[in-house]
Amino acid sequence: MISCSNLYAKEILPNNKIEKLLKSADSLSNSKNYIKAIYIYNEVLSFASKKLKSSDASYIYKKIALIYYKQKQYRNSKIHFKKSILRYSTSKNAADSYFNLGLIYRKEKEKDSLFWALNNSLNIYKNLDDSLDKFSTYSKAGILFKQAGHFNTAITYLLLAYDGFSKQKNQSKKASVCYTIGETQRLLGNLEIARKYLIESLNIRKQLSDTLKTSYAYNNLANLYKSEKNYKSAIVNYRDAIKTQNGLKKKKEIGKMLNNLATVYFLTNKYELALKTYKEALKEKKLEQDTLSIAYSFNELALSAIRSKSYKKAKSYLDSSKLYLSTISKKEVWLRYYEIQSEYHKSRYGYKVAFEFKEKQYQLYKELFDEKQSKTIQALQEKFENQLKLQEISELQTKNEQKKSIITIQNQTLKNKNLLLLLFGSLILIFIGIYFFIEQKQKEKLQKLENKKLEEILKSQELVKNHISKDLHDIITTSYDGIRLKILALEKAKNPKEIRKTIINDIKTINHEIRLISHRLSPLGNKIKDASLNDVIISQLSEFQHYRQIFVAVQLPLPEVLNQMILEAQTNFYGILLEILNNIEKHSKATEVQIKHRIKDNKTLLFEFYDNGIGFKNGQVKGIGLMNIKQRTKLLGGDFIIKETENGTSININFPIKQNLP
């Protein structure tokens, strides 16, 4: 501990003295002498407050906060990060403090606060000059958005980091961000793009002669090939990953790589090779003292031995696995153990024991399924609640702006009235009375119209919420229950492969329905931030044509006026487009869609949608989709007409241009 000193008392420190003290405190912090470092930082803040610039004070508070963060004193850390922000709210120190605040909120599992802090940090960095810290923050933000499931936002910031590191010629950072982009694109299902970035990451690591990370890059690329069932390419890259590490004195994660290679051998029915490679993996994992992976390896060794009909070895491996499992609580490993035990006893004609292990596997699988189902429901609920919060905040902000505008107008009006009263006296009072009378009537008229409009919107929103609630209930209760019953039927089914296919199709259908609900809640989302509405529409039509196998013939170019409309109008128009495409896909059985447009008298924008489907039944014109189209068209101030044609269905949308412009 440093004893209190009167060295700086009652004096204002000169700049050179402040600089020396800060260097001393930084040095102490780097050497992990945190108590002394904090003491000196506080001394500078206390005795040099009049001399310190806001930027210097912000820096010192940030440094103190980082020390508390390293010591896991998160409460004190948050206090000092916030002080850093208050001292200079648009500086790099503030941006870093916001980001670190986000990391603390992440540890405390406060998602709303995490993204609030993260967005504040990114918004400050956008206005700062390009730097390594700026692009590193973009990269870290991309990883955080990826981990939270916000993949499109993650890609946005990862690409900014990629461009920044490219300009700065920082190949090491660029290789890392290439890997993250590849993994994110893989999660989005864009496997071609994912492969491109993973290969680029691998090539950069080779150029840098970074042996360890080159090995990781080969392994990452092999994982992608494995997920595509391109086992030949997966084997080549897993072997390269292992071979690359052979030249290192200290190997890392070589056991996992060997395990990955053994799994591919097993999947391609090369049981002897799989058995040999699993043994090598086991040897490495024992050196790494990775208990969980060792248990996994013994399980897979046992299965390979069963397939090779080496039953004594299989029994030995299962016994070894059980020894390690006694210290492991991870249910997935136990699930695999029960499954392989059941197969072993079945192959040895011990059907009763096999059935007992199968029953244990079923019970554990049910527990895991229930846990995952609960997490899925919770995630859906959180997402829905977050959307409602954002909508509520937006509405409050709009009302607040309206009130501010009214107050400003009223203040100006009062000034004018006072001036007129002084000049014209009683005559002006008469005019003021007339003015107020007319204004009041106009306000009452506008208020009635606004109230009526709000009532219709609220009724529609309530109806949409009820439908969404029903849809979520049906997805969670009916669909998942159906999947659960099919899973239960697998054991006794004569055609398990067909049932598995139906389960996969059911899950795909659920994903599609959840995505539709998400689009209804927020059609545009964050897409409009990075592209024009016309670009978003073209991208959506291309995706629709590619994935739904329905040819789209659209009249190009799209009207430029769409890009000029206010955000609310753009959101409503894009929402209409999504609902039309969904109805075509879901009900029409069409193979082609035509989209035409024109501007009438420079006042009205008309869009016509035609499909060559089967038309519609009376009940289909009353669904939530068409109701959504009708309501959004109404908000645009336009009309919506749907009719059956000889060759399918046509939908006409028209709305005035002027009232939807800024």
Instruction: Report the radius of gyration as a whole number of Å.
Output: 32 Å
Care to count the β-strands?
5
Shape: globular
Read across the widest sheet, the strand sequence of neighbours is 1-2-3-5-4
- How many helices? The count is 25
3D structure, described in words:
- Strands 1-2-3-5-4 form a five-stranded mixed sheet.
- Among the domains are: 143 residues; 133 residues, Heat Shock Protein 90 (2-Layer Sandwich), CATH 3.30.565.
- Helix 6 runs antiparallel to helix 7.
- Strand 4 and strand 5 form a beta hairpin.
- The N terminus is likely disordered.
- The protein has 662 residues and is mainly alpha-helical.
- The longest helix is centred in the middle third of the chain and has 74 residues.
- The protein contains 25 helices and five strands.
Topology:
Layout: H1 15-30, H2 34-47, H3 54-70, H4 74-87, H5 92-107, H6 111-126, H7 132-147, H8 151-167, H9 171-188, H10 191-207, H11 211-227, H12 231-245, H13 254-267, H14 271-288, H15 291-307, H16 311-325, H17 331-347, H18 351-424, H19 426-490, H20 496-521, H21 527-530, H22 533-548, E1 551-554, H23 561-564, H24 567-588, E2 592-600, E3 604-611, H25 624-635, E4 639-645, E5 648-656
Helix pairs in contact: 1-2, 2-3, 3-4, 3-5, 4-5, 5-6, 6-7, 7-8, 7-9, 8-9, 9-10, 10-11, 11-12, 12-13, 13-14, 13-15, 14-15, 15-16, 15-17, 16-17, 17-18, 18-19, 19-20, 19-25, 22-24, 24-25
